[in-house]
Amino acid sequence: MEIKKGIAVSPGISIAKSLIIDSEDYRIPRRSIHPSQRVAEVQRIRNAFKDAIGELTRLEAAQDPTEGGKIKDIFAVHLRFLHDRSMRKKMTDLVHAELVTAAYAVSSVLREIAQHLSKSQDAYISERAADIYDIERRLLKQLLGKKRQAVEHLTEEVVIVARELSPTETAGFNREFVKGIASDAGGRTSHAAIVARSLAIPAVVALEDFTACVNGGDTVIIDGNRGIVIVNPDDETLRQYEQYSREFVKLEHRLDAMRQEPAVTRDGTKITLLGNIEFPNEVDVVLQKGGDGIGLYRTEFLYLNTETEPTEQDHYDAYAQTVCGLAGKPIVIRTLDLGADKYTQSKRFVREPNPFLGLRSIRFCLQNLTMFKTQLRAILRVTVLGDVRIMFPLITNLHELMQAKMILRDVMEDLDEESIPYNRDVPIGIMIETPSAALTAYSLAMDCDFFSIGTNDLTQYTLAVDRGNELVSMLYSSADPAVLRLIRTVTQDAHKAQIPLSICGEMASEPEYVMLLLGMGVRTLSLSSPMIPEIKQVVRSVRLQDCNKVARKVLSMNSERQISAYLRNAATKILPEAF
Amino acid sequence: MQAGDSLENVVCEMELEIRNSDGLHMRPAMRFVDIANRFDSDITVSNGETNVDGKSIMQITMLAATFGTKLKIKAEGPDARAAVDALRELVEDKHFDEPTPNQ
């Protein structure tokens, strides 16, 4: 039994046999196979050779021999290697003698050759190692590519183990059979994590060298609630988890059952619960979970998924699909929030010594007007399709807000000239994510239509803690009195200025904060959609007067530890099974 | 050069020097095994203590033979002599049709 700790990115428990998806770009870890699998693995090597030979023969034939024949020669050399029986035999012998996977055998034999060559004193010969790596990649592509395709044709339940998964790959998983995901790389906000969450597949990421600790077919438990994975659990652990899993499913069903019930406190105050989304197809999940609309539509995915910059039409198509899917329910589209931990493929981002204090988000947009205007045009064009609102992220002062609004007006004028319709009165809001914005909320409120507090960034900027840095991450807590006082200030100022306010950070999806936030005057929460039913149940279980009491009490406390303990205790009394 | 006693199983050995500047890299290795594979005889190539199969491009490449390296070629089989002659022609006379340091 081996237990590994990572980051929980999608809740739920799954127990199944592992299916490992290696990537040809990385070192293939040594994995054992059962003696009965030997014949099949050897056959996989033969097939990989056969297919690689076919591929290379076609490539070689397609080369123009008049062009010096150099490239043709390279393919011809690679073909000789693939036809080399003694090399293939070395690989199949390795599978037989040491019970390793086809991918490992192929990779280790070729890497040995490559390493031998690169040791040569002669530069011309040592450079030939690159040819060997090329042959390795070609064979692994055959072996692993087939495996990746095989994920689409699963016939039994598995948990997927991979170094890294792309959002597209994750989105293509068959939910009937893919029961969980564990990956070496990734973070809470990585795109694969967000897709896993929206598909409700339990997932744990950032497990570092997990792919090297598992063999295909090992039983793996994925605990997407606590961020733990267990390989080959002992009987006792397995029993515990089966029990835990059953209870969790029961709770989920009970929560889903109250989807149609309104989010109203016991004393009759209506609370609006919205979903945070990233991809157009997540709208369905939000509605299915009982969300009243979209409080945060992140638009970075258009940039992160492709090699080339998205066109206005790319933006428009994605937004139009999302807006139409909501059938009139409100949606807040947040303009690009690139930079810091989210980069595009383009080289426009210079590596900065301190990216979180650097050129990110609205600052980046204000310096890249062509890109910014392209997005604003697309957003304005979809305002006629539904209840669309625009939100600018990371505003730190009034000047930035005025600049952003001025650019929006420029774009509106362009549309006027071209007689393209849009909603002239589209509500314009800002995210309150920095202490400077929180402290000047009242003046900002005079120039915008709504606020949304991004508690993740607000917490990290207020406490000066990078929560991705494990040396200081224990200092990160939204229950810190400093953070809570800022949230209090913002809610009061929004109230005074009579503009609506919502909370869209992770704080909104944590049950223990619900009473406090309602008590501080928050009436709209925007959260990741799988959490909507649970938060709704908390809302339906509380009375506003009790929430007010909790908020008063908490705001008089001056220690994060005391506040966390108090909130947890208060929430446990309301909804014991959620904790 | 020494010849075996029976016509069916001749053993033929010869020392060959690599004369092209870039040594026995990929393309020369390919030409070497292409010629070696035309013969029925078993062909062993030695570079010092290392003995490899002259018909395997992987093994020939592993020799990492550079300009000036002396390789021992040993052919064993009915067409051993012809095999060694053909390989000698490729390595020493034609030097793989590649430039030598004097050119």
Please explain how this structure is put together.
The complex is a heterodimer of chains A (579) and B (103). Chain A is built from 23 helices and 16 strands. With 579 residues, chain A is of the alpha/beta class. Chain A has three domains: 2-23 and 152-250, Phosphohistidine domain (Glucose Oxidase, domain 1, 3-Layer(bba) Sandwich), CATH 3.50.30.10; 35-150, PtsI, HPr-binding domain (Enzyme I, Chain A, domain 2); 258-578, TIM Barrel (Alpha-Beta Barrel). Chain A has an eight-stranded mixed β-sheet. Chain A has an eight-stranded parallel β-sheet with strand order 15-14-13-12-11-10-9-16. Chain A is globular. Chain A starts with a strand and ends in a 5-residue tail after the last helix. Chain B is an alpha+beta fold and 103 residues long. Chain B has a single domain (10-97), classed as Histidine-containing Protein, Chain: A (2-Layer Sandwich). In chain B, 30% of the residues lie in helices and 25% in strands. Chain B is built from three helices and four strands. Chain B has helices at residues 26-36, 57-62, 80-93, and strands at 10-17, 42-47, 50-53, 70-77. Chain B has a four-stranded antiparallel β-sheet with strand order 1-4-2-3, with helices on one face. In chain B, helix 1 packs antiparallel against helix 3. The longest helix of chain B is centred in the C-terminal third of the chain and has 14 residues, at 80-93. Chains A and B meet through helix 2, helix 3 and helix 4 of A and helix 1 and helix 2 of B.
